[in-house]
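re: that chain from earlier
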Amino acid sequence: MVSRDTCRRNPRRARSVLVGNMAPGPFRRPVCAALFPLDFTRHVPVPSSDFKKALKRLPESEKEALLLRAVRRDAELYETFRFELLADVTLAQIQEEAADRIHELFNLAVSGRLLNRSLVKALRASVQEAARARRITKNKQVEIDLLLYILRQCTDNYSGQFDSVYDGFFNATARLAARVPALVLKALHEDLWLEYKSDIDDVLGQLHNRNKSRHLKFELPREFAIPS
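^ sequence. v structure.
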């Protein structure tokens, strides 16, 4: 058994111990299937039929206790059940709460020692917040609206960092802006596409007005092209 101190001193060794035969190259080693019967390549376990039958046989009080224990340990699971079970928790409320957290992430970034790097971290964390809201509500339009809110935060409040000697924040913003048009076309009904064109075109135009846009290593659209 490898101690926690060993893992701290040698994280590469810890990786080989934890992932076993899933590790690449020199870290690959055989793992006994009897000791590790679960498939660790899957992120989420699939409940078996026996598990479902056993769950149905549980008394209601035990089901309630299990559920409460689960939501106390998993904030996202709690938010999901809160949205699905409470009539007064609306889609708009979940989106507003996520937007508030995103706003706070950017506010905290300003207090960071290296502003450009702090803004990159805030942007990445904000994108995760948008994805989290989509998982809770199972609504992709909520995620897209939040991604556009993130882009507006970047262009309206922190565009001064686009001209920084560091490229990180501009590149991260441009990558997100390049991703959103395809996401709109894929996730939303075509009747909604036109509603997003003006906002997306404005963000893309602001980014293309910066000299750094000429040196991007990926394609940044000049406008949101809607298929005819």
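The two ends are 62 Å apart (CA to CA).
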